[in-house]
Amino acid sequence: MEGVQMVLAKEYGYVVLVVVLYCFLNLWMAFRVGNARKKYKVYYPTLYAVESENKDAKLFNCVQRGHQNSLEYMPVYFILLILGGIKHPCISAGLGFAYIVTRFFYFTGYSTGEPQKRLSIGQYGFVALSGLLICTISFAVDLIVT
User: Fold this and answer.
1) The whole model's pTM is what?
2) Cα–Cα distance, 24 to 41 (Å, whole number)
């Protein structure tokens, strides 16, 4: 079994910056959830508010759910971005940035308390993820064939 030796292109730095940018977006969303906890009086360790106990439960739950959904997709996003970026750093960084933009609008739309608003631009995140998946598959095929 032969080892694979590779050198990352300098453009891979864009991939790294996009990962860091998503971390900042995630922190911003977490702060928004924290503020919503105070505003709607939903205290830890309660993950979601119950409508029978809190008149603002839906408003809080929409903010919480927008962040939670982003956390659920984060591992998939990171692995596709990091692996696909090895062979296609600029394309992956561009798709990764596009995903961040869609996640911002997904979260802000959801945070309005009207869940359908998360889809205005947020729904296009899957296009970016699909592109990252293609980049990652291309990288895998390249490893196997070379």
Assistant:
1) 0.92
2) 25
